[in-house]
Amino acid sequence: ELYFKNLSKQKQKEVMEKNGNNHKLRVCVATCNRADYSKLAPIMFGIKAEPQFFELDVVVLGSHLIDDYGNTYRMIEQDDFDIHTRLHTIVRGEDEAAMVESVGLALVKLPDVLNRLKPDIMIVHGDRFDALALATSAALMNIRILHIEGGEVSGTIDDSIRHAITKLAHYHVCCTRSAEQHLIAMCEDHDRILLAGCPSYDKLLSAKNKDYMSIIRMWLGEDVKPRDYIVALQHPVTTDIKHSIKMFELTLDALISFNKRTLVLFPNVDAGSKEMVRVMRKKGIEHHPNFRAVKHVPFDQFIQLVAHAGCMIGNSSCGVREVGAFGTPVINLGTRQTGRETGENVLHVRDADTQDKILHALQLQFGKQYPCSKIYGDGNAVPRILKFLKSIDLKEPLQKKFCFPPVKDNISQDIDHILETQSALSVDLGGTNLRVAIVSMKGEIVKKYTQLNPKTYEDRLDLILKMCVEAASEAVNLNCRILGVGISTGGRVNPREGIVLHSTKLIQEWSSVDLRTPISDALHLPVWVDNDGNCAALAERKFGHGKGIENFVTLITGTGIGGGIIHQHELIHGSSFCAAELGHIVVSLDGPECLCGSQGCIEAYASGIALQREAKKLHDEDLLLVEGMSMKKEEVVSAAHLIQAAKLGNRKAESILRTAGTALGLGVVNILHTMNPSLVILSGVLASHYVNAVKDVIHRQALSSVKTVDVVVSNLADPALLGAASLVLDYTTRRIY
Questions:
Q1: Can you tell me which residues bind Zn(2+) (predicted)?
Q2: Which of 416, 461, 622, 727 is most buried when burial is the number of CB atoms within 10 A of its CB?
């Protein structure tokens, strides 16, 4: 035993010598309230687990030490951390003057503590007024500051405080790429910025599968079921206290009317919180049978409560940040979180000025389940932060320098100085092949995987998951950060739910299929699904001829005929997700039969299947082959043979292609008269053969007001894959109600 202990000590010594530093880094972590402790605790556990590198001192101040806010310092003790110093810094009053006096009191008390501790570095979190006092004291006492969650944007005075702390801090740990870019734009040194993700996500992403029913029963009652209760957490807005109190009153009225069991957490210590508590008591919330009002819930239990709630409502940053990890619906009220990056699960009610508006938002969101979002982290923040701390050279000059370079575009730098590219996993489900690709923000297909599309649902889903997992693993080696999964598939798709409603005949066992849930659960990534025609239109909007065009139509000419419509920069889905079935526009009442069961559709004339059908007829009558053509005995007749025959002067083949081009052109004319786009993009293998015929029909048949429309052939090699990627890369995450 003694031998192994000595061996372990020797290894630790070697590591420290290798780093050129025999001095343990003395880290002071100061926590002010329950919210910042949830972010700091994972870092504190990580520091405590490596005593060969770090010494940890914990300072507790602010609302942690107030009974009205739950005496939350106890949870720090329960986590087995030694609290070095407790500082009572809150001046009661819960108004603007009390906040200023609290900062002043903290500034008076902190110098003595810091003189005794003499930390090498202080870790400060977030944007609270207590944190500003910490950063100011440390900066004036020549103590290096590591700021967590700088560069983010939100409403209220918190924004100004956060950016002020950024200017005082020497090192920065940010959670999102946008935050990183904001820090660079604020002239912070890029080498001192770590894009790590949110530390709380290290805990969140592994928390959902734990036992939760006992926690739900403890806080909400024995009769409450998962997804059948609400968590409400609302704080005052210090720049508009009167309005925020009125909004809180309307929220409580809406929750009473909605008549669901609700856990209401008391607001934070900001100015206006006392008035909000008065509103709760005036409405009898603490004694109402549908409500449970509490000052504090331990973070481990709070995670389980929001993970299995039917909805969360309020204006806490937790709603727009942490809750996205579980896909729980969130209603974000007012302006307190304006500017925050949010997932698909967040519905914003910016102007929450009526009870009916909040009640309607509850009706829209309650009970839904969204894909889990990893905007704020991937579960590996703490190892990155610890590595970053170890890299700090205390011999470097303390005086921080500001940089004034142009903002770097699409560059992310972690502690290893690895450039990561924001990317999407793109899936294309075709009739023959199943393809998965890693696609960068610029539309570059970094790597592509192709397999035959299985015939059964189970085999197909298993193969999708296997290929996606393989691609996601390879993305790490390729320095690509996967933001989500986009899926392009044939058939009618409900993109809101990620469900294939009805499939084409080319893909068997592919109706009423939920693609989003199993893939999102397996990969812990958000998943978007849409029809292949719509994806082609999205690809053109982001990467092709449609970039910057307000109104355009994409037509895919391949095995079938499909397409997508972009109107006022947005994709049109239709009331039953059947918009842009352009191949089934009827151009003749007595035309050939279509696979859809109708007659005279564009697809019955101009699709690859239709041309193959006509080619077989000619071949059976021995009228297909002309001089310069040959076919092997076992070779299958295809549309390519018809096109080749027409090029070599076969009059009948030319006539068939002319008819097909005319049918497609008439369909385009109908689209022009209905949608009036400024651009028509022909995509697919047959596009170049039809473009002149379509232009000719427009010139002869269209109204003069639409004849000037541009008709072009797509220059994209893989529109389905690129379109599926754009579902991820361009998805609008900020919805406004």
A1: 584, 594, 596, 601
A2: 727
**pLDDT tens-place string over residues 556-567:** 998 889 999 999
Same domain membership, residue 114 and residue 30: yes
Task: Sort strands 412-413 and 552-557 into parallel, antiparallel or unpaired.
Answer: unpaired
Give one DSSP letter per residue of 417-470, joined into a string. --EEEEEEEEEEE-SSEEEEEEEETTS-EEEEEEEEPPSSHHHHHHHHHHHHHH
- Ligand-binding site membership of 584 (annotated): yes
The rounded percent of the chain whose pLDDT value lies above 70 is 93
Helices 516-523, 457-477: crossing angle, 10 deg rounding: 40
Domain contains 2: no
Looking at 483, 516, 543, the residue that finishes a domain is 543
Q: For residue 684, which of 539, 585, 573 has the smallest C-alpha distance?
A: 539
Say yes or no: 193 and 214 in one domain. no
Is residue 733 in some structural domain?
no
User: Based on the domain organization, do 216 and 184 belong to the same domain?
Assistant: no
Domain final position from 509, 525, 543: 543
CB-based burial label for 112 (10 Å; 0-12, 13-18, 19+):
exposed
Is 397 part of a structural domain of the chain?
no
Taking the CA atoms of 641, 644, 648 and 651 in sequence, report the sign of the dihedral they define: positive
- Tell me, yes or no, whether 319 and 446 share the same domain: no
Residue 651's pLDDT is: 94
Q: 413 and 192 in contact (C-beta within 8 Å)?
A: no
User: HSE (CB half, 13 Å, CA atoms) of 86?
Assistant: 14
Helix ranges (H only) for 84-173 are 96-117, 129-140, 158-168
What secondary structure does DSSP assign to 693-734, as a single string?
A: HHHHHHHHHS-GGGTT-EEEE---S-HHHHHHHHHHHT----
Q: Which residues pair with 55 in a beta bridge?
A: 26
- 220 shares its domain with 343: yes
Q: How far is CA 613 from CA 86, 435, 619, 642, in A?
A: 83, 27, 10, 10
- What predicted TM-score, i.e. pTM, was given to this entire model? 0.54
pLDDT of residue 681: 97
Q: Quick one: CA dihedral 92, 98, 99, 104, positive or negative?
A: negative
C-alpha neighbours within 13 Å on the C-beta side of residue 544: 28
Measure the CA–CA gap between 682 and 624, rounded to whole angstroms. Answer: 27
596 is in an annotated binding site: yes
Q: Are strands 291-294 and 346-349 parallel, antiparallel or unpaired?
A: unpaired
Closest CA to 587 of 680, 668, 492: 668
Average pLDDT over residues 250-276: 92
403 is in an annotated binding site: no
pLDDT tens across 651-693, in order? 999 999 999 999 999 999 999 999 999 999 999 999 999 999 9
Q: Is 601 annotated as a binding residue?
A: yes
Query: Does the residue 469 lie in any domain?
Result: yes
The boundaries of the domain holding residue 316 are: 205-365
Q: Which of 714, 318, 268 is nearest to 535 (CA)?
A: 714
List the catalytic residues. 532
CATH for 593: 3.30.420.40
238 and 324 in a single domain? The answer is: yes
Please count the structural domains in the chain. 4
